[in-house]
Specification:
The structure is a homodimer of 80-residue chains.
Chain A: E1 2-9, H1 16-27, E2 34-45, H2 51-66, E3 72-79
Antiparallel strand pairs in A: 1-2, 1-3
Chain lengths: 80, 80
């Protein structure tokens, strides 16, 4: 199965990288761009009996390694 | 409109971050994980007349700022 994990800073946390990108886009001539958020996406293959098992495994991976859950939220997608 | 840009290293380029994550997951007890790729995802709002215009604008942003097209590929999604 294929897992895709999106990791973003939580809503209340200042996204410095997003602010830098937004400022750069404004400077390059796109003043209408707003609310820029920069996150990570992690894709991988894994072996699991079914999608529910895979989802639980990947959530555990996020909690332990892939996301800093104090300041980041994550979303898991499993495709067969 | 809302734009989502996924940026990944091209297939032939060594993904050092992905390799590190894969190795860490193996060490944490998930030996069945493979082909880990780590990329960036950039989300933002923009003003555009229609989805096609927005798509063209965002592709231009990727070429100029958001992706290093020598070693990275990108995928743009526009949602109203």
């Amino acid at each position: 199965m294929k897992a895709t994990v999106h990791v973003f800073l939580k809503a209340g946390v200042l996204d410095v990288q997003g602010k830098a990108v937004e400022s750069a886009l404004h400077g390059l001539g796109w003043p209408d761009v707003s609310a820029v958020r920069v996150g990570r996406v992690i894709e991988f293959d894994l072996v699991a009996q079914d999608a529910a098992t895979a989802d639980a495994e990947v959530e555990a991976m996020c909690d332990r390694l892939l996301a800093n859950t104090v300041i980041e939220s994550f979303r898991v997608e499993i495709t067969p």
